[in-house]
Design goal:
Order of helices and strands of chain B: HHHHHHHHHHH
Helix content of chain A: over 70%
Number of helices of chain B: 11
Largest sheet of chain A: none
Distance between the termini of chain B: 41 Å
Strand content of chain B: under 5%
Radius of gyration of chain B: 18 Å
Structural class of chain B: mainly alpha
Shape of chain B: globular
Oligomer: heterodimer
Number of strands of chain A: 0
Structural class of chain A: mainly alpha
Chain lengths: 92, 198
């Protein structure tokens, strides 16, 4: 929940005081944070007891579940939104 | 961005597996919560800079539930199909896919309910879902539509994968992504238990 409070604080800053001309810098900071987050996730995984062995033995089975659920969700959401929602706003 | 993400992941795993502990690099991984907070703050600024978003979201009403609905149904259906292909049992399969990317929770819940092996698959497959989201969102935004970019992210669409939405979709879809993440995250624990108990 606190994460939403932080985000809401950001929304207020963006709406009230943040200068438009620094928009690009703000986006660049997001990329930096994302890369650092993914790195941390990697470190966390690497430190996990037996992670590489787990990956070797269950990796393929897990990958199948991951790919299938991504594919099915994406296709279904694509069809539903194309059918029910404004095409222009969700456009490419 | 995709290459950067991949490099960060590989370097992270390598460092976590083989690197020495207690170096300044640990400051990054030990404070990942703070990094996530910072990211959310910056994403908030992006949303706040766009003055018309909230008004647009209000126009959608009940339609904002279409995306989480599609994600839940698609994920569980995929889990059942995969379980038939691999023989892990439909309840297990549905529960694993019902994690929708929330790997820590899905791993723990499946370990408790179905044992260490299913717990590992739940952990790994949901982790892979989150990782693969980073890599599939750019493609989906080019070839399908912006709304569909939220689908792979599932329950992670309001935190880790949100920065990809900011980069590859519109501010409006970013707000829907936050909404979707909240709904999906609330649904995950209930869905896993429900799928497993059916």
């Amino acid at each position: 929940m606190s994460i939403l409070v932080v985000m809401f604080a950001g929304v207020l800053v963006g709406a009230l005081v943040f200068p438009e001309k620094y928009k690009k810098h703000n986006e660049r900071l997001q990329v930096v944070c994302t890369v650092l987050l993914i790195f941390s996730m990697g470190v966390m995984l690497g430190r996990r007891e037996g992670f590489l062995q787990q990956l070797a033995s269950m990796g393929l089975l897990s990958l199948l579940f991951a790919v299938a659920s991504i594919a099915a969700s994406t296709v279904l959401v694509f069809l539903l939104t194309r059918w029910l929602m404004d095409k222009k706003k969700g456009g490419k | 961005m995709v290459l950067l993400a991949l490099a960060a992941l590989v370097l992270g795993v390598a460092w976590g597996s083989f690197g020495p502990a207690g170096t300044p690099l640990d400051l990054i991984s030990d404070n990942s919560d703070l990094i996530l907070y910072a990211l959310m703050f910056f994403v908030g600024i992006s949303i706040g800079l766009n003055k018309t978003i909230l008004q647009k979201i209000r126009e959608y009403h009940i339609k904002v539930f279409i995306i989480p609905f599609g994600i839940v149904v698609g994920s569980v259906a995929a889990g059942v199909v995969c379980s038939l292909l691999t023989g892990v049992g439909a309840r297990n399969g549905a529960a694993i896919a019902g994690g929708m990317g929330w790997y820590s929770l899905a791993g723990v819940m499946l370990t408790e309910m179905a044992g260490a092996q299913m717990g590992s698959v739940a952990f790994l497959s949901n982790l892979m879902r989150e990782m693969l989201s980073f890599f599939s969102i750019p493609w989906i935004s080019r070839h399908l539509n912006y709304y569909s970019c939220i689908a792979p992210a599932g329950a992670t669409s309001e935190d880790t994968t949100l920065s990809m939405m900011v980069r590859y979709t519109s501010e409006e879809v970013v707000v829907m992504s936050v909404f979707n993440g909240i709904i999906c995250s609330a649904v995950v624990p209930v869905l896993i238990r429900l799928c497993y108990s059916l």
